């Protein structure tokens, strides 16, 4: 059921790329669907001296092609107000508060505020402090803050950032966004696991041989090289998106499907993630950096990268979650740039039956594949009898496929739309809890430290553009007698 939400959005970084490409189109979708109708307003802030009219034109441009009539676009953009604002200038928060109070009254919002920090995390602390000290938080409605990634660059810096935010906002009001958690098939993991006896019964070390997660990108670093040089694939993808997916794949059944219980289940899974020693990092993690290939430049030739850069653009690793159900199941993960294709895919490889009664036939592992991107789909690979007379009793591979219909595809919301609606409703399970981050960073820091000490003595670059990473990624699985199910 669609229930209208009342809220005043205050977006810090309102002129930025994220706001224009993701936030305004997502908010417009919520408007078209009736989640936002009359009782809402958006204040966009940034340093530039824009007028309301100019800002509304930018908003209209950002939803170009999404509306049926000019009237709808104008009615929507009229809810937007621009406030020139330097986040470090206290006096600007006074003006912002006055505008917020005025709009709260005009649109009868009742004091509900959603602060969206769509700018560099180095400003999060000062913004949150001012929101509290300059009384932008109301006493009549909710006050929630959505923060963008990256949340720190290691455990120590994430802790400092979290301490700064928590001076002004309690944990329940902090919505740390990870847009992978807004994706349809990522959310489907819980339904598949906990809604079906077959998978519920088999989702453990007695039946699962290994789990594989691939988050591959075909693009290079593009215009993000400046940031990427200081981050690398480990911080940019493994610490957040990958570990969140791993938590959903390995958590024990939540007591109920409430925010608190789901988050507890995920926190416990990440708590049981084995943190590696340096030698274990060498054994269980490999890194790569793309070389030129297919007429594309090497990472070291990109703008804003060092000619001898040691930043990894590829990571593959084996994770172990030491819970009663998952201990001993290798969880292989890999992510990288300039790989053969863009895809987000999960393969759950089940063990073979203990005794093959079809003596002349090789039985294969059953595999459940959950494709998140680009086309949400499910596939279950089974062994089945080859159809027809005249054959001996042969078995062959049978694929049970589920793909979304064209109609269903149209109804899939963009991840940001879904997550913004969750935040409006106060639903926090698809946002990262601070405790999850703590365990994630501790795990990642151990790998980073080992690599900074060059335990693996890697030589970069080590894979050409357009392949699925360096050879060492294949070898990592081969050591255990496994292989990547997802090949191009
Ligand atoms: P951007 O550089 O395009 O925008 C930054 C915004 O902050 C601009 O509106 C700028 O005017 C404003 N700003 C900078 N300094 C300011 C100051 N002192 N006072 C007031 N405003 C100031 O950045 P972006 O790509 O929109 O990213 C914003 C955040 O979202 C970053 O944390 C980024 O890591 C994160 N993020 C972005 C994307 C994306 O697709 N763009 C994806 C994931 C996460």
Automatic annotation (TrEMBL):
| Keywords assigned by UniProt, alphabetized | Carbohydrate metabolism, Glucose metabolism, NADP, Oxidoreductase
Q: Which PROSITE patterns match?
A: G6P_DEHYDROGENASE
As its record notes, the protein acts as a catalyst of: D-glucose 6-phosphate + NADP(+) = 6-phospho-D-glucono-1,5-lactone + NADPH + H(+)
Could you tell me which pathway this protein works in? Carbohydrate degradation; pentose phosphate pathway; D-ribulose 5-phosphate from D-glucose 6-phosphate (oxidative stage): step 1/3
Q: Oxidoreductase: is it a keyword of this entry?
A: yes
The residue ranges of the Glucose-6-phosphate dehydrogenase NAD-binding domain are 10-188
Glucose-6-phosphate dehydrogenase C-terminal domain: residues covered: 191-485
Instruction: Give me the residues that bind substrate, please.
Output: 179, 183, 217, 236, 337, 342
- Give the CC-aspect GO terms: cytosol
GO MF annotations, alphabetized? glucose-6-phosphate dehydrogenase activity; NADP binding
GO terms for biological process? glucose metabolic process; pentose-phosphate shunt, oxidative branch
Q: Does the keyword Transport apply?
A: no
Fetch the InterPro entries from UniProt: G6P_DH, G6P_DH_AS, G6P_DH_C, G6P_DH_NAD-bd, NAD(P)-bd_dom_sf
**According to the UniProt entry, what is the EC number of this protein?**
1.1.1.49
Q: Which residues form the active site?
A: 241 (proton acceptor)
Residues binding NADP(+): 47, 149
The record's family statement is:
Belongs to the glucose-6-phosphate dehydrogenase family.
Known role: Catalyzes the oxidation of glucose 6-phosphate to 6-phosphogluconolactone.
Q: What is this protein called?
A: Glucose-6-phosphate 1-dehydrogenase
Name the species this protein comes from.
Answer: Ligilactobacillus ubinensis
Gene that encodes the chain: zwf
